[in-house]
Write a structure and sequence with these properties.
114 residues; mainly alpha; 4 helices; 72% helix
């Protein structure tokens, strides 16, 4: 794949991730479940923590997805041959950051016991 195609695919991947997060934000899970939404033991303790976790995680997801659009441009100039691969890896790391951010938020808002 040539470097311009890598740039298009990498940017498209970022757009796809943003679209997925926008759908989750627009249609959040209403009830605690095991298959859709932000699911951790802390977020699933009760309806209040569930709702707070869904709102916060979806907002943070959108922010990180928008931030991820810088990766294709940076990688295009730094390592263009691996632009798509590096963008996927960087996006994956950003997505994983949602967990500590949301857990910290829930801990601060609800404490250890709730």
């Amino acid at each position: 794949m040539d470097v311009d195609t890598q740039l298009y695919w990498a940017t498209g991947y970022c757009a796809f991730i943003l679209l997925l997060f926008a759908i989750v934000q627009k249609y959040p899970p209403k009830k605690i479940n095991w298959w859709y939404g932000y699911r951790t033991s802390r977020s699933m303790k009760n309806e209040e923590t569930w709702k707070a976790a869904q709102e916060y995680a979806s907002k943070k997801s959108i922010q990180l997805a928008l931030f991820s659009f810088m990766f294709p441009g940076v990688f295009y100039f730094v390592i263009p041959e691996y632009n798509f691969l590096l963008t996927v890896i960087a996006n994956t790391l950003l997505i994983l950051l949602i967990i500590p951010y949301t857990e910290k938020y829930l801990k601060e808002k609800f404490g250890e016991n709730k």
